[in-house]
Design a protein that fits this description.
It contains 6 helices and 2 strands, in the order αααββααα. The protein is mainly alpha-helical. It has a two-stranded antiparallel ribbon. Helix 2 packs antiparallel against helix 4 and helix 5 packs parallel to helix 6. The protein starts with a helix and ends in a 9-residue tail after the last helix.
């Protein structure tokens, strides 16, 4: 995969998440999600602020912790989410973004990340969070094969071990993948999500 491809793949992941979020109504906001600690409204609040955090990081302002502070969703969370998605996609489309260093304090404050790697983190979040929203709503969710393969490659690089047992960890411990698991399911299992949720 060439470096410029990551921004296009991320764009598709984000747009897929926008499409599934567009089905959310205010009555859905209290639904459970595969993110065990969050209702759907809380998940949307997280997803929205993450877009703005990554957009800020692309502009060299990611170290500001206030940017990453989650705020409750407003009166129109679907519109707010779509607007945040537009902001991050605009930030990632700027010339030279892949050569920048991103400060991502929610991952670590000890270092910054190359643009390609940072955008790959964003990509995996929105492939998986798009699935989270779809499962919460009980609606279909599909990811193109090329995007799913890259998401799996990124998921395979996410550290496992005891850090996943810490309260508030981004991902739960790895789950065993059956032999017939497809690419998206393998990604979900690596990140501690059961494709059969909520069963």
């Amino acid at each position: 995969m060439s470096a410029p491809d990551i921004t296009e793949l991320d764009r598709r992941a984000v747009q897929g998440s926008v499409a599934v979020v567009s089905a959310v109504t205010n009555g859905d906001l209290t639904r459970a999600t595969p993110c065990a600690e969050w209702t759907l409204g809380e998940l949307l609040a997280h997803m929205t602020v993450q877009h703005d955090g990554f957009a800020a990081a692309a502009a060299g302002r990611g170290a500001d912790a206030d940017i990453w502070t989650v705020r409750p969703v407003g009166a129109d969370p679907v519109r707010e989410y779509a607007a945040a998605a537009d902001r991050v996609l605009a930030a990632f489309s700027e010339p030279g973004v892949l050569e920048r260093r991103f400060a991502l304090p929610e991952i670590t404050s000890a270092m910054t990340f190359p643009g390609v790697q940072a955008i790959s983190f964003h990509l995996i979040d929105y492939v998986v969070h798009g699935w989270d929203v779809a499962r919460s709503l009980g609606v279909p969710y599909q990811v193109d094969d090329d995007l799913a393969k890259v998401a799996l490659q990124v998921a395979e690089l996410v550290p496992g071990g005891e850090r996943r047992l810490i309260p508030g960890a981004a991902f739960a411990p790895v789950l065993t993948a059956p032999q017939d698991a497809d690419t998206l399911d393998r990604t979900l299992l690596i990140l501690g999500r059961s494709p059969a949720w909520p069963d």
